[in-house]
Amino acid sequence: MKSLLLLLFSFSMTLSLFAQFTYVPDANFEQRLINLGLDDLLDGQILTSNINVVSSLIASSSSISDLTGIEDFTALTLLSCGHNPLTNLDVSNNTLLTTLWCYESQLTCLNIANGNNTNISWLSLGGNPNLTCVEVDDASWSSANWPEILEPQFSFSENCDNECSPSDVGIHELNSSRTLLKIIDMMGRETKGAKNEFLLYMYDDGSVEKTFVVE
User: Fold this and answer.
1) Where in the chain is the domain with CATH 3.80.10.10?
2) Are strands 56-58 and 180-185 parallel, antiparallel or unpaired?
3) What is the domain class of 14-175 according to CATH?
4) Burial 29-53 (b: 16+ CB within 10 A, else e)
5) Residue 102 DSSP symbol
6) What value does the CA radius of gyration of the chain take, rounded to a whole number of Å?
7) DSSP 3-state of 32
8) pLDDT tens digit string along 79-103?
9) What is the dihedral of CA 181, 183, 186, 189, to 10 degrees?
């Protein structure tokens, strides 16, 4: 019996060790995911396997100011995030996206250059007076095929050179260091660190390091 329990515990530890998590710093965004049954604990992270199969996400009117974590919704075809105090939105990793509703928010930058703009059939971006440049795969194609979404201040570009642009993100990453947010054990409990056990070090850039310190 003890051997069986030890085997089950070891198997559980192995699954936990190799589980991948997605960093979700916005508590309102994570609470929305909890309400949708995709998460169960408000701790700044969510199992990636819970979200990389989601095809539709309705997160409008949820007081969300940061959608960090949306990049791991790799099966997403529809995203509704309107009526939120969002300033930045990057869906360039969401290559299956066909519908984006992010109307009446506070966007200052938007990157939808996901390599498959020709599959996006419905865009709703009205009511973002501070959004001037929308990063896309091909500015000429977008201007010809999405004229209905253009407001007077909007323009399309392959490189808006702002916070949502890949080159800008890369510069910020090179010029900044990671900050350790917390250390958790394999049971998901926060700890200050211990020897002879597996630990997860979680950083503010979304990265997670798995360590095992031998005494």
Assistant:
1) 14-175
2) unpaired
3) alpha beta
4) bbbbbeeeebbeeebbbbebebbee
5) -
6) 20
7) helix
8) 999 999 999 999 999 999 999 999 9
9) -90
* Nearest residue to 203 via CA among 176, 184, 180: 180
Contact predicate 149/142, CB 8 Å: no
Distance from the Cα of residue 190 to its chain's centroid:
23
* 56: nearest Cα among 71, 75, 40, 70: 75
Q: pLDDT by residue (tens digit) across 24-70? A: 999 999 999 999 999 999 999 999 999 999 999 999 999 999 999 99
Q: Is residue 140 exposed (0-12), middle (13-18) or buried (19+ Cβ within 10 Å)?
A: exposed
Query: Measured between alpha carbons, how far is 94 from 91 in angstroms, rounded to an integer?
Result: 5
* Other C-beta atoms lying within 10 Å of the C-beta of residue 161: 12
Query: What's the whole-model pTM score?
Result: 0.71
